[in-house]
Amino acid sequence: MAKVHVDTWRETYRGLMSDDVLDDPGLLEFREKFWTAALTDSRYEQNSVAVASHEDTVIGIAMSGPIPDSAEESQQLYVLYAYAAFHGSGVGEALLNAVIDPAAPAFLWVADPNPRAQAFYRKHGFVADGTVNIEDDVRDVRMVRSIQAMTAR
């Protein structure tokens, strides 16, 4: 899972994120620690995690969970990555639906510009709400899916 996370970051964010971050020799170890905690630490027991595989190889990962320190009912999509070779294959949709009910309200942060990912999320009922965050020199926009938007579809 950590390898998929690092590889897909490098595929997705090259040119959007600093090469120093993407090529950091410690990035894989950092992601291994992240996934170990996400899968074993009781703080994350309400999170949902899914993997997609092809020919016994993990090709995509996803994770959602409650919003920390919030009474809000919606889920946050924290991770959704698949190798570029599998874009358009249905893997992303399967991962999304595995970690967040397709009829449930949710939100996520997506890099901007990232037109392919943004179009994918729009297809699944998410709309940009105008909120922007900049982290690691990457501009992210928040996309939200409300119950009203889902019932209107």
Automatic annotation (TrEMBL):
Residues 1-148 form the N-acetyltransferase domain. Pfam families: Acetyltransf_1. Keywords: Transferase. GO terms for molecular function: acyltransferase activity, transferring groups other than amino-acyl groups. InterPro entries: Acyl_CoA_acyltransferase, GNAT_dom. This is GNAT family N-acetyltransferase. The lineage of its organism: Bacteria, Bacillati, Actinomycetota, Actinomycetes, Micrococcales.
